[in-house]
Amino acid sequence: MYEQYYIEKEKEIKLDEMKPILSRTDLKGNIRYCNTYFQEISGYSEKELLGSEHNIIRHPDMPKIIFKLMWERLKKEQNILAVVKNRSKDGRYYWVTTLFEIKHHPIHKTAEGYLAIRKAAPHNAVEVVTPLYKKLLEIETTQGIKESEQYLREFLEKEKKTYDQYMEEIVNHEGVVMKFLHGMKKMFIY
């Protein structure tokens, strides 16, 4: 047991708490911009990332229902906050708190893509969300995504929270995470 835990910890990438990971995609999820920290952490070059689908960094431990929810919200032009486990090119992983939002053309005001602003996920958020994600993934594997979605709904009902309330609560120690993400959003010019 200890050896397995130790080996898993060895594969985790420790993120700089003060550096954001930024990316922008088109409406289909193809990467159009990525900052240098994204390249460094993911292990992919800018050339490999640009034009690739953003799921190039998707970790197999992530339940599909989280991304289904994300796409549903973005298509309705609603932002979404999520704790996400990503995978680097060499197979290591890293946990991030991500604010996904729609980006509009500055003049025409039409949707033109999505912005993802990430920072290191708080340790307590990872501890809280990991059992939920494992359960959702188990349900998806054995019963399907609809059942996984139903489980998530029932879980949130028991918590007496919306998805947004749940995520903000687990990642937002005294508002610090949200202040950081919104501060990065204001600085992100393209």
Automatic annotation (TrEMBL):
Pfam families in the record, alphabetically?
A: PAS_3
Determine the domain of life of the protein's source.
Bacteria
Write down what this protein is called: PAS domain S-box protein
User: InterPro entries under this entry?
Assistant: PAS, PAS-like_dom_sf, PAS_fold_3
- Cite the PAS domain residue spans from the record: 15-77
CDD domains the record matches: PAS
